[in-house]
Specification:
Length: 509
């Protein structure tokens, strides 16, 4: 994706659309807009300095964010995958300039892999959902500009005002010295021009567009982004306490809506030899920490504030450095964020952890300490020890030690992601949450009103399948549709205004 001009603090260009957030929703929005209106100028802003994809993250082919798709119940997601596969063999926006051999080497996203011993028909993508992000990126990268490390902190709606120009005058636009003032057009003959929205990033960059799509969670928008309006006369900004005409009820829902996966983590354990059965893994109730209502030996000795797995599943097999590996993935409730408390736990519990094979060839930790990673691993392996013993018992072997003293086999490689520590995803106010909660839909978030130019398009913005992959696609497609409609309305208004000027000039007015 081309750079949008990071070398300058204030970018002179006015884009048709700025999309803030390069996850599934943001990329879906960009692709759909370009399909409907190929001439649309788009700037994609991503708060992360290093990657796109949002909560989709698949190092070594194992999903550390969302993983499951329900083909029978999620038609938009399935249609997106089918369309991408079909378009890989035909020319698409930007791909006409792509290298044919590179395009032909792409593996199709479908068919999906049914989840072994799943509960409701869920399925996974071979090689992880990161492949979907790569396909969406290929679809749009030559037709959009992109800026990384671009955290949105302020949005200013700049009111464009009109001045009656003299006959034969040319359009002259100017901006206030601050770079955030109103743009005044000297050739207007009366009335108000369409609003332009200035998007400010944390490092002082300013970008402008006629429409803006916020493709990150509404709760994070509410906590991190200030809204203001420019009076259109002297360049003064006035804070907008009721942005987008959102009602108090809607803002309260935004503030209370959990961010899915936010306080959770995922750990992927890679093994050369598969020791588990998918059925035992999916259907064995993992022991939980003390204080959660269970009474087993694990609960008696493990404090509730410790990280623990609450679901595990077979993630199939992958190839790592040419070697086949079997993957077991567990959802992790991250427990307390009290580092000193966790440090004590780390000293106490990892001393009991025997590494077994001892071949942790690679560890991936995002924004988390190595000590905490090891504490997570020790607790998860101890919990999975129950699965190991049940499998052993089913084969006629003795159960051996109590669950509190038994560990699952040590993995050959580990990848781990603590989403709570990802400041690009999780609002600061929620970083002490110990257990994930599913988000509720927010009705009225994208209600239209005259002149509206800012829209929400993350999975949490969807009223259906909120927080899920299907919700992300729904929100992205709906945002694209409304933005294209707004751009077409604006183009019609400008064309009508230009015709009016021509008639007035012809009549000598």
């Amino acid at each position: 994706m081309a750079s949008g001009g990071a070398s300058s603090a204030v970018v002179d260009r006015v884009y048709d659309v700025i999309i803030a957030g390069a996850g599934l929703s943001g990329l879906t929005t960009a692709m759909r807009m370009l399909e409907q209106r190929p001439q649309t100028s788009v700037l994609l802003l991503e708060s992360s300095a290093h990657r796109i994809g949002g909560r989709i993250l698949s190092p070594q082919g194992a999903d550390l964010g969302p993983a499951w798709i329900w083909p029978h119940a999620q038609p938009r997601m399935m249609r997106l995958l089918r369309d991408l596969d079909q378009q890989n063999s035909s020319a698409t926006p930007g791909q006409a300039r792509d290298n044919d051999s590179k395009k032909n080497n792409r593996k199709p996203l479908l068919p999906l892999i049914p989840q072994e011993s799943g509960f409701g028909g869920e399925a996974r993508m071979r090689g992880g959902l990161g492949r979907l992000i790569e396909e969406l990126k290929r679809r749009v990268e030559q037709d959009v500009d992109q800026e990384m490390d671009a955290k949105v902190v302020k949005i200013v709606e700049e009111q464009h005002i009109s001045h009656r120009g003299t006959s034969g005058s040319e359009d002259v636009s100017r901006t206030s010295p601050s770079g955030a003032g109103a743009i005044e057009t000297a050739a207007d003959t009366g009335g108000t021009r369409p609003t332009v929205v200035a998007v400010h990033t944390a490092d002082g960059r300013v970008f402008r567009a006629r429409q803006v799509v916020l493709a990150f969670p509404p709760k994070k928008v509410l906590s991190d982004v200030k809204f203001a309006q420019n009076d259109g006369k002297n360049g003064l900004e006035v804070e907008n306490n009721t942005p987008l005409n959102l009602s108090r009820h809607v803002k309260q829902q935004m503030a209370n809506q959990p961010v899915w996966m936010g306080p959770a983590g995922k750990i992927a354990l890679f093994y050369r030899e598969k020791w588990w059965s998918p059925d035992a893994l999916m259907r064995t109730q993992l022991p939980l920490p003390r204080g959660t209502g269970t009474g087993d030996s694990y609960s008696k000795i493990h404090p509730q504030h410790q990280p623990h797995a609450f679901q595990a599943y077979d993630a199939g097999s992958v190839i790592v450095d040419g070697e086949p590996m079997h993957v077991l993935v567990a959802f992790v409730a991250l427990g307390s964020n009290n580092q000193s408390l966790l440090a004590q736990d780390y000293q106490a519990w990892t001393q009991k952890y025997v590494s077994g094979n001892g071949k942790h060839a690679e560890t991936i930790v995002d924004n988390g300490s190595t000590a905490y990673q090891k504490l997570v691993l020790a607790n998860v392996l101890e919990q999975l020890g129950r699965v190991s013993m049940l499998i052993s018992a089913s084969k006629g072997n003795t159960l051996g030690a109590e669950p509190s003293n038994s560990y699952a086999p040590s993995p050959d490689m580990v990848t781990f992601k603590a989403w709570r520590n990802d400041t690009d995803i999780m609002p600061e106010s929620d970083q002490n949450m110990a257990f994930p909660q599913h988000p509720h839909g927010i009705r009225g978030l994208n209600n239209d009103h005259p002149g509206r130019a800012i829209w929400f398009a993350s999975s949490e913005a969807a009223e259906d399948w909120t927080g899920m992959l299907e919700g992300a696609v729904i929100a992205g497609e709906l945002a694209a549709d409304v933005v294209i409609e707004k751009l077409q309305e604006t183009a019609s208004d400008v064309e009508l205004q230009e015709k009016k000027i021509q008639y007035q000039r012809r009549d000598g007015k």
